[in-house]
What we know:
The chain has 85 residues and is of the alpha+beta class. The chain has one domain. It has helices spanning 51-55, 67-75, and strands at 6-11, 17-22, 27-32, 58-64. A 4-stranded mixed beta sheet has the order 3-2-1-4, covered by helices on one side. The radius of gyration is 12 Å and the shape is globular. The termini are far apart. 20% of the residues are buried.
Amino acid sequence: xxxxxxxPAYLHPNRQQLLVWCKYCDRYHRHRAxxxxxxxxxxxPTNGDSPYCRTGYKLDDAGPASPxxxxxxxxxxxxxxxxxx
Length: 85
């Protein structure tokens, strides 16, 4: 069984979302706050090529998101059904 990775999660200023950088799809994943310790499902658009799609991951509190992080996450395209890629 693969070890579940831990990724830093940054609190969005709206205090409703967490931003998590994915090195496999080179974009931010958004998850609902708060950090609970429960595993999260990856939102990678890589059709399962990302190891995170197989294992999921846990979130570690990394503090508030910087304004640059929020701008970058907010510029990402959104699928027609409203989900981030």
